[in-house]
Design brief:
The complex is a heterodimer. In chain A, 30% of the residues lie in helices and 28% in strands. Chain A is of the alpha+beta class. Chain A folds into 2 domains: 316 residues, TolB, C-terminal domain (Neuraminidase, 6 Propeller), CATH 2.120.10.30; 122 residues, Serine Threonine Protein Phosphatase 5, Tetratricopeptide repeat. In chain A, α6 runs antiparallel to α7, α7 packs antiparallel against α8 and α9 crosses α10. By secondary structure, chain B is mainly α. The longest helix of chain B is centred in the last third of the chain and has 46 residues. Helix content of chain B is 82%, strand content 0%. Chain B starts with a helix and ends with a helix. Chain B has one domain. In chain B, α2 packs across α7. The chains are: A alpha+beta, B mainly alpha.
Amino acid sequence: MARMARLPIMARISIHTRKPLILLIACLLGVTAGGSSSDAAETSSSYNYSFWGETVAAPDAYEASGLYDGVSLGTGSFKAPNDLHVAKDGAIYVLDSGNNRVVILDSEFRLVRIVEAFEHDGAPDAFNNPQGLFVTDDNHLYIADTGNQRIVHLDAADKLIRIIDHPQSELLADNFQFQPARLVVDKANRIYAMATGVFDGFMEFSSDGTFTSFIGANRVTFSPSEYLWKMLSTRAQKSQMVMFTPTEFTNLDIDSDGFLYATNGQRSDNVRKLNAQGNDILRKKGYFPPEGDVRFTTTDGPTRLVDVDVTDSDMYSILDSSRGRIFTYNGDGYLMYVFGGLGNQFGEFDTPTAIDRQGDDFLVLDKALGEITLFRTTEYGRTLNEAERSYFSGDEEQAYALYEKTIDMNANLEYAYSGIGKALLRQGEYAEAMKYFKRSEDRNHYSKAFLLYRKQQMREYFPAVMTTLIALAAIVVAWRKYRNLKGRRKVSSIEQRVV
Amino acid sequence: MSRELFKYPFYLISHPFNGFWELKYELNRKASLVSAFVILFLLAITTVLQNQYSGFLVNFVNPNSLNSFMEIVYVLLPVLFWCIANWSLTTLMDGEGKFVEIFISTCFAFFPVVLIQFPWIWLSNLISLQETSFYYFFINLSTIWCVFLLFIGNMTVHQYTPSKTILTMVLSVVAIGFMAFLCLLFFSLVQQIIAFISTIYQEFVLRS
């Protein structure tokens, strides 16, 4: 528990030791020092980020409730498992890369069968260090058989349907080595494969296994100093340098609408939602871009994402391998909850490598320990998930009630206030809605509520205000006339006397 | 007289060339110094109120980090630094201005900021997101006006050519950077000396 809150505490310590100096810098440069980060209450172990970038306490949304390794499952221990996938019927497929097999469990973690070999042209064939797998809705199994440089497609009865190897295209170099590492399959049975050493994006294969194109390449990023060096170097020096290449993707997932969710190893802009044209359409309306931890110490470094999992209602989770945390965002990009961590305790990992959802439960695969940790929702997590679903499906009444319930459990969840505000706005409670939008720092909706509120107030008070104004004006005019009249009489009497 | 004093800033911001000239050569030094302090005070008050009471749509200040005392310091310190830097430079560069004159002209140059931004603190509570363009337009207008007045004021006080004024203003900003660095260095050293002395004291006390 203390481990998870380690980050803000460390940040606070470093501020304390250099407090006078930092205060002075703040004085001189006109910046405010740190701000007081809310201390995590003793009872809550998770956290979230406020609008101001402070770490605020949050209750646990998920709790570890089960730990499964190869021995307890009766399959012999896992050896460097790389990927896991939960099929639509709840069956769990674990890719035990080191043992070159796929272990299939049912939804209750009972062993169903182990796929170690399949029949290929009449002869038995096996995998060689496979890295990724995908299971379609009708339980067809796709395996990125990296060591054999091919993708293997088996049906629900483990019979070979197709092998995809040696993709041919003018887009590929002649000496191209096809090493698929992760893959997903869409509803039309198109395969999107992430291959090592490919910088042009994901490789898209049509349903008959022919390579069609690349999709969604990362953009090349380089710093100005790197660019300057390159400009100043000679050609011989340049040839020694590392080329500017786009970063490789680290993982991908596909949602029910066929949008690809992809992660890469960059420190920011590291989650993408790709449409059919390969454009990034991820919504980033949250307080911070959806890229894991906002505050981190320089020694720990930024988040490094290794897996992404998307579920219904546009909610998606990303797995950070540098701190072993799982961050879940809603479709707008607001951070919902964080759980996990590196360590030796129950619910912590050594080398987390893959996550997937089984209903609302999370399965986290640890590569080094060969274990699967099962996380179940708490009351808070369930309420928040349901609130998000109701909001997504447009059931504002239900969402309103659920967000209220969520806030009762976690007053720090700022974006939930906006959900309440939207319901109030629809009900015509503009002033009340404004209050809630203010709490969630939602300026867009605040402005909408404010415009309606202003109109309402104007309608209500305009007659009274206008009547008073006209009455006042009339009194002033009358008084002036009266004074002029009196003044003129005086003047005329003086004139008369002079004459 | 007091009525004159009240009206003068309005005359100065609309007729800067004559205004700064009279400020330097014709008006009572003491009276204008008092006006300058009043304007500076109003500027500080405006900043504090702005951070606290500006409309939600244009206010991006974390209320938890607000400290009125520090807000005032953030206004006074840069003005002071500017005056010192400008004075130090212009003394070496044949400027005719005295420190008091620099200070007075600087403070008067901030009058449009007070004049425009103060009413907008309250007006900003009555505008929608689309209407914030007006808010930012007026804030920018006041800033540009202020910089323009600073420029004219500096030029008049030191009897410089326009190009030389721009040069000194840029150099003053650089000098402010140097001053900030030296102050930091000084405070850091003092802090270490104090820490050193207190450690020695503790050593003595604990040994005996």
